[in-house]
Amino acid sequence: MTSLIVTPYGMYFEINGDPLEAGKIYIGEDGLDPQTNPVAIFWDRDLVTPAVQPVRTIAGLPDNNGSPGNIYTALLYSITVDDRDDVLIYTKLSNGSGITSQAFVSDGVSATYTLDVAPTSQAATTVTINGIVQHKDTYIVSGFDIVLDTPTPIDDDVEVTTVL
After folding, report:
1. Across the strands, what pairs with 140?
2. Is the pTM of this model over 0.70?
3. How far is CA 35 from the centre of its chain?
4. Average pLDDT over the chain, rounded to an integer
5. Measured distance CA(3)–CA(5) in Å, rounded
6. Is the peptide bond before 119 cis (omega within 30 degrees of 0)?
7. Of 22, 64, 102, 137, which is least surrounded by CB within 10 A?
8. What residues have CB less than 8 Å from 104, skipping those under 6 apart?
9. Are residues 112 and 82 part of one domain?
10. What residue numbers bound the domain in which 88 lies?
């Protein structure tokens, strides 16, 4: 299971409402202070490229070497965001049930993708193909499976994101 670290409002903001610059994002064990109980975080959903904590912000988003990036972890997590002067901006000691993201590469034949974690509903699931969000009427959720209306061409990237 991979959890995408979700920005609560699309991005982080300074107290005055401006996008958070040079803020500090800490990710930790679920239910615990993330600054004193950090977990491994990554820049990619495959959990290969590690990110160093705290992750700084640029224009209110996580800064991955000067570009906005997504942060991922293999676990449920807690999060704290401070501004550049260590003033608390946002904290959540538990991300609740979590958000998972799982990636597949199409074989060009099958329209069924089996997930590691069963989605709670179709409404809580998003499917993207080559980065394009698919309409909910183009797939169904059946237990651990996402079944597309038709198979995608070979080597297409299929990603399924689910709020648990």
Report:
1. 147
2. no
3. 20
4. 88
5. 6
6. no
7. 137
8. 113, 157, 158, 159, 160
9. no
10. 3-92
Q: What's the rounded Cα separation, in Å, for the pair 93 and 40?
A: 16
- Over residues 50-107, the pLDDT tens digits come to 999 999 999 999 999 999 888 988 777 889 999 999 999 988 887 665 677 888 999 9
**131 with 67: CB under 8 angstroms?**
no
* Domain shared by 103 and 147, yes or no: yes
Q: How many domains does the chain have?
A: 2
Strand 112-114 to strand 72-73: parallel, antiparallel, or no bridges (unpaired)? unpaired
CATH number for the domain harbouring residue 49:
2.170.14.10
Q: Clarify whether residues 73 and 133 are in a common domain.
A: no
* 30, 85: one domain: yes
Task: Tell whether 57 and 136 lie within a shared domain.
Answer: no
| Separation CA 124–CA 152 (nearest Å) | 22
Choose among 112, 34, 116, 137: nearest CA to 76: 34
